[in-house]
Write a structure and sequence with these properties.
alpha/beta; Tumour Suppressor Smad4
Length: 278
């Protein structure tokens, strides 16, 4: 076995032939270096593949390789509930904002990944609680949005302060990393990823005085769905619809104390990538 790493989990974009080809090459490279790997059943259940398969939740992995786009990475984080070992991100997809290794470069960095020759970038994992009960978490953003084009009324509390009540399409709670996604499109600020912060961005509020707020990562944010809201707002966590919320429900966001650890082999230039997104 190379280094101290045991089995490596490979998570790939569902239904992607390109990702599957890269996964096969990576698996052979790991084997040639004396390592072990398996393909996560959560991403591919094709029994014709020669790569061993196991569930991410049942098979303990010392490291994880994600092959796909941002959605694949966020899905892997969601499955593991933020409790993941170091993750190597190999970009195969339209949106690869989090990725630093392309498909053509992947084999070059596999040995470094197995030997631990990389720098870790930490992404805070934000816990989500609905009416006091844990309901997963995120590293990018969560959206509470009106259903069927209905205006929602949301009371926002940050720490001990209640800055405003939003009457509009909804609200976004994002991390610094997530500030360049939906939050930015909705008029939120670009926040340096090295800042430990949370961003609250109202969606199309009726009130002109309601504006985005950047606050400390350590403060709890509570969003209460007003009892007189005429619809059941949707709770969307890192792009996945979790549930519909009843009027009177409360959603709390807090830093879990856990970070998602991404292995970096070269610097990710966020601002240059933003220019490329336009």
């Amino acid at each position: 076995m190379l280094g101290e790493c045991g089995s490596i989990a490979i998570v790939m974009k569902k239904g992607s032939g390109s990702a599957l080809e890269v996964a096969a090459r990576i698996y052979e490279k790991i084997k040639s270096l004396g390592g072990e790997a398996f393909l996560a059943l959560e991403s591919n259940t094709d029994t014709s593949l020669s790569i061993p398969k196991a569930s991410l939740l049942e098979q303990r992995a010392c490291r994880v390789i994600v092959i796909g786009g941002d959605g694949t990475f966020l899905r892997a984080v969601r499955i593991l509930k933020g409790r993941a070992p170091a993750m190597m991100l190999v970009g195969v997809g339209r949106r690869c904002f989090y990725y630093d290794v392309s498909a053509s470069e992947a084999l070059r960095y596999i040995e470094d990944f197995m030997r631990g020759r990389y720098v870790i970038q930490h992404y805070p994992y934000i816990a989500v609680e609905v009416n006091g009960i844990s309901d997963g978490g995120f590293i990018n953003e969560t959206v509470i949005a009106g259903n069927h084009m209905k205006v929602v009324k949301l009371e926002v509390t940050i720490g001990s302060q209640r800055p405003y009540e939003v009457h509009g399409d909804g609200i976004i709670v994002a991390t610094s990393a997530g500030s360049t996604a939906y939050s930015l499109s909705a008029g939120g600020p670009i926040v340096d990823q090295e800042l430990d912060s949370l961003i609250v961005v109202p969606l199309n509020p009726v009130q002109l005085s309601v504006r985005p707020i950047v606050t400390s990562l350590l403060k709890r944010i509570r969003v209460h769905v007003s009892e007189d809201t005429s619809c059941r707002p949707r709770l969307i966590v890192d792009g996945e619809l979790y549930r519909e919320l009843e009027p009177g429900s409360s959603v709390t966001f807090r830093f879990s104390g856990t970070t998602v650890r991404v292995a970096r082999f070269k610097k990710v230039r966020v601002h240059e990538r933003l220019l490329g997104k336009a």
